[in-house]
Amino acid sequence: MTKPARLTLFGALLLGSATAASAADFYDPPVVEAPPPPVVYEEVDSGGWYIRGDIDYHWSNFKDADYVTYSPPGYGGFDFGDLRGAWSFGAGVGYQANKYFRTDLTIDYWAKSKFTGQTSGFCGGLPCQSVDESSYSALVLLANAYAEFGTWNGVTPYVGAGIGGARIKWDDLNNTVGGVTTVHEGTDEWRFAWALMAGASYCLTDNVLLDAGYRFTRVNGGRMFEYAPVAGPGFDEGIDVHEVRGGLRYQFGGSSRCAPPPPAYEPIPIEPPVYK
């Protein structure tokens, strides 16, 4: 091999070694996959059926009553009439349309409220007064709608209104004058009723809510008692009922407003490529 050829070969080998050494100093970074997109949690609080059970204590306001008199012919009225408070209980089924609106149908039984009243008139031409005693109970059916105002720490305030009917049952009226008691047969009839309510619910679990509130119910007037010697029938002018209520609602399928909040999204850190 001639000297120029040997110099050329040596130069080529030297150049190749330098190129290989330079390539060995560079380290290709590993392939890093992009992190998955964050999970979007959608609040779904619609299409939910529920059942409910309630107990309450209520106070009834007796508006007044008129009755027919025959000696002399005409009409009479009570000087006053008082109704005592009583317990009641009820149940219902409803539908949560969305997180701001729900409806339900309820049935309540009002236990007996004792009635005490007084009338004034003439007995044998002389002024006299009577002591009147009875009691009433009722079965109340209402279709209700509620507006709800969001949930804070598991508490959801609401207002509502209802419309329906009440079957009022008056017991016999005992009319006592001078130690003599006349019994007027009581009545049992359906009457128109409506209600207004306000309250709040509290999440006990995902499915169970505690409900507490106030309801005002207005029952129209109607027949109170039948004829007995010298007087009757009698007609009351309606009853206003104030109720303090408490109960439980069971939401089928659960309620998103009662579920714990989803975990906060934390992106996966991307490590920078390493060069050597």
Automatic annotation (TrEMBL):
Gene3D superfamilies: 2.40.160.20
Pfam families noted in UniProt: OMP_b-brl (PF13505)
InterPro entries cross-referenced by the UniProt entry: Beta-barrel_OMP, OMP/PagP_B-barrel
Signal peptide location: 1-23
The organism's place on the tree of life at top rank: Bacteria
Domain (Outer membrane protein beta-barrel): residue spans on this chain: 12-252
Keywords carried by this UniProt record: Signal
Protein name: Outer membrane beta-barrel protein
